[in-house]
Amino acid sequence: MKNDKLEVTVIGGSGYVGGELLRLLLRHPGVRISQVTSRKFVNLDVSLLHPNLRGVTDLKFSNPDEVRHSDLIFLALPNGESMNSMEKWLSLSEKVIDLGADFRLKDAAEWQHWYGKEHVLPDWLSRFVYGLPEIYRREIKSARYVAGPGCEAAVSILCLYPFIKNNIIKSHPIIIDAKMSSSQAGSKASWASHHPERAGAIRSYKPTNHRHQAEIEQAFRPFSGEVAVSISATAVEMVRGILVTIHAFLDKEIGEKEIRAILKKEYGNEPFVRIIKMNRGLYRYPEPKILQGTNFCDLGFELENRTSRLVIIGAIDNLVKGAAGNAVQCLNLMSGFPEETGLEFTGLHPV
Amino acid sequence: MKNDKLEVTVIGGSGYVGGELLRLLLRHPGVRISQVTSRKFVNLDVSLLHPNLRGVTDLKFSNPDEVRHSDLIFLALPNGESMNSMEKWLSLSEKVIDLGADFRLKDAAEWQHWYGKEHVLPDWLSRFVYGLPEIYRREIKSARYVAGPGCEAAVSILCLYPFIKNNIIKSHPIIIDAKMSSSQAGSKASWASHHPERAGAIRSYKPTNHRHQAEIEQAFRPFSGEVAVSISATAVEMVRGILVTIHAFLDKEIGEKEIRAILKKEYGNEPFVRIIKMNRGLYRYPEPKILQGTNFCDLGFELENRTSRLVIIGAIDNLVKGAAGNAVQCLNLMSGFPEETGLEFTGLHPV
Amino acid sequence: MKNDKLEVTVIGGSGYVGGELLRLLLRHPGVRISQVTSRKFVNLDVSLLHPNLRGVTDLKFSNPDEVRHSDLIFLALPNGESMNSMEKWLSLSEKVIDLGADFRLKDAAEWQHWYGKEHVLPDWLSRFVYGLPEIYRREIKSARYVAGPGCEAAVSILCLYPFIKNNIIKSHPIIIDAKMSSSQAGSKASWASHHPERAGAIRSYKPTNHRHQAEIEQAFRPFSGEVAVSISATAVEMVRGILVTIHAFLDKEIGEKEIRAILKKEYGNEPFVRIIKMNRGLYRYPEPKILQGTNFCDLGFELENRTSRLVIIGAIDNLVKGAAGNAVQCLNLMSGFPEETGLEFTGLHPV
Amino acid sequence: MKNDKLEVTVIGGSGYVGGELLRLLLRHPGVRISQVTSRKFVNLDVSLLHPNLRGVTDLKFSNPDEVRHSDLIFLALPNGESMNSMEKWLSLSEKVIDLGADFRLKDAAEWQHWYGKEHVLPDWLSRFVYGLPEIYRREIKSARYVAGPGCEAAVSILCLYPFIKNNIIKSHPIIIDAKMSSSQAGSKASWASHHPERAGAIRSYKPTNHRHQAEIEQAFRPFSGEVAVSISATAVEMVRGILVTIHAFLDKEIGEKEIRAILKKEYGNEPFVRIIKMNRGLYRYPEPKILQGTNFCDLGFELENRTSRLVIIGAIDNLVKGAAGNAVQCLNLMSGFPEETGLEFTGLHPV
What we know:
Four copies of one chain form a homotetramer. The first copy, chain A, contains ten helices and 13 strands. Chain A is of the alpha/beta class. The relative contact order of chain A is 0.14.
């Protein structure tokens, strides 16, 4: 801490999540970014890759091999990389928030099943808190190590949590039809991301066996034993955002009013969860486009009595509530800042 | 028939389905468009509303009250209008293809349930053949009156048919998550279709109780008794096209190879159904964007053994296989033309 | 002023500029919104029309006939409306910022020529300061009445100003090829804004005789006598933003270095003008998409020696620097707040 | 010729122009594709890269080193490649249509100036006919070697031709503000084409010194001596298509009626040029989106008397009239087919 500011390091600052962390931290009144690394772009202006930061910062990328000690490190690395270097980061900071997938699951065998290789630091899995403040706020407040959730997992868990916790829906089948934006695949160009191919696409790319199923099922074991969650992911024409349409089946008769009461009980005091179920206007259910840049998770629902189906609709910005914004929210909890600090942007309309 | 050409009338030619009919019929070698009506645009060039037809036709809109006899009438009217005027159209033509919803259901009570008013011509419901050639080809060939399917129903029925007919999936739950384009809502401007609001939207607009559920369930009663189908419809950023992701559950163990064999048996000779399940390239499952302007229905699938889930993926152009192109396919069957006549366009890539 | 906050009224709060004013003012630490009016939506939540403000404000629309006195009034009315009611607004507030076109031109005859009707309050034209802070900062600071510029005019004047003031380009021809977004046409739905028609459009809609030519020419008369400016406006696929490509011709030989020096001299201290001319990276010239929600005007250029052509490239968010943000910047100047207050948002990337 | 079909080879069939040639040739009644090459994808189905051709053809890519003799060769190679291998292609076919840039310019020094390297076959430059049928129809009919125009050049020349030929506009300045789609940059992925970066972009990428200026100026030398043409190219959100807004200045007073008469004289019989200047409807000037897949060049204009400015607006599909379709039109002329054969597609609306 210098001048009462928390000294923060961002490892992996050239990607989209890293850029979003910089955007948020540069406007955070309690934080100073001391280093941001990129092996590939050492000594170049961060605004070369994040042109929205032109004139806002003079930061340059530094070498990840030359990181100095700081108060908190954010890791925004590709999956599978943070576990290889974690011991180094732990020696360079009191606190670590890992935005990758390496420390999200508690069980090393389960991790290996979904990620296809052995975990390098299995003993550390239990030491990371799953960084979803709405559910694990107390644990995060006292945590030194936090693993940020996957973006589909974050929105899906927030959508399902009140219904599973309160025994409203059956534990199987729970189907998550996820509509995904192009930024979720990262900043590296590929054939699949080539504009003439990706533009206007409505492309089923992971209809079954999605890794985030594991995180979601893990989250609900304490509440209801095993749940069986199935994700189908479709890429749609959008740069930022996720919309999930979750199809579940009622375990008992329930009305809209009762559901509203439960949602109010669970989320009424949450600064970033809004219940969106309107009977007029255009935006009657959650929609990702007006959430771009914000840390909100919007949540709506509808009942289909004929088939006992409950449809839960959730939306977030995958780079904010699904990654960088949620991590800043964790930082706020871990460091004693008001939880909304640096996350005040309301979003734009129209957009 | 003049000069061996079938004389055809299009009622309701100013909308998007009407325009698509004109586009297809103008290039159909066996057809002559004798009249195209629009009450609002009488005497104006059809190319005023359908600018792709500039230089292609000199047709003008005529008054629907002054229609002369012809060999076949297409009705492209808003839902609820064709039943009010049907007796007139029946007197003006031997054959009628209605692209609206009025004669799709066989049961008047069911129609009233879903459309919220009493049917005007209940006795005629049984005289219309449901115009889906892949399933009712024989009936359409000898039909005088055909009701074209709803677009979500068309693609959903084609996706589910092989699996329900061959008892592969359970009859409940069957969840159809439909991603819809903006043209489906028609050519009339509204707040919801205002570009700054609709552009980039991923908008849940009919999460439950979708009318097309009735058509789909009706289609499968002969095969399996009652099935319970749930549609959730989401508007995505796309002008033409539908993608359905159908989530169903296996009634018995089955492998990919066996499914491929069944699909080949059911659809191997179909000119407009393609099985799309590739293990390389970008377009591994059906995608609506490369189907724009074509009469194809592309169909793919994936199995999730862990949850006994079968995901069926289907794509069409809602204005072609979901409306006008499918109607021209019916015309071909009803009139003895080769089934693909006028429907040869392959689609574009990239697009 | 209550509790040291400036009491502000927004007249015409249901449109896009009104909504953007609310978004900015709600986060402005020195301002309190006392009233926001909409004749059509009286008593409804402002978040019904501006869904990004859900959970951020409980404001409701009030009746424009029941406006109470406040410290400053913003008028966000359709062109031609504010002059009819201006005397009323002047009686209700010390200060007025009109975001419409009624008081932008100094000459009543010129106004009548471009807007096609007689001006109702010609004597008041000279009492309004043209609200472009980068050029009229001193006048705005002491102004009571400010007329906000048209969005194409704002960006075009900022692009041309250093070059005309320093006699670098000829006064004729100056061609402004403006690429416009859909929000510029306002929040009212129309055939032209219907998504299937407007989506993906690259539509020349005002190739000649654009009204904003008058504002631009008026701005430069003090510097160089008459300039002849021609705007051609094309609607492109974008919800927010303008890109202008300005083609002008050099009055004397000049190099890139010299131009950079002039731009630095004119704009080096401006908080919202950035010179963007990079030799690496993707964003080498100004681009509107990363400016969404920000008050920046980005400005770049390129020389074509062979034809003595200077190309100036400018980008803004039409709703922010082209309207609401620029008006808040004026408010800050008029009220003694630091000029950037409430306008700190950096913009998003990717987006 | 086998069975009266012209045997045609496509060299470089994996790119977007190659794919478009295949799409058109597969539906051309007088042509048989005997070979399509791709060094990278030898033995793979062409439909792997061109998914619109699934079920339409079983063609596989063959090795460019194993090409057999055929009646006509299309070259769809990157700029600078065809001149290196041209002698081989000339030995394998009576006729060659090169869609690249290597043989478009007549002057080897000029070619070197614009393309930055020495031309390998300078003596052959004069033997290639510039393949723009509307201007060089007679020459193309008897040509063995044709060089297809660049896409911006094709639409710009067609727009300017009637005005320069008839001495209506001054020879300088002529400013072409070109709005370009993403497919024009080819099928190879890059950072610049990465969807999160390219989507929604309105990006000035070549504001000065565009290579196509040379082709355009060359085209008009016979008519008016030197003209000075300046292109500024901006990438907009569109996969296919070009819109050019051409700003020129009148050499004499002229009215709209007189211009219409000249356009009718020059283009009244052209099958693929349409004059679009409407006083009602939405599509009053040319627009690329309804031209996707078609061989049309739409052309409109507007006069600004105050500044003696003429604005000419032109639109094409860059892959069709700007490349593959125009080449098929040349093939038709060279081979005695009716000029419109295989090019009958009208385009879609809405789209």
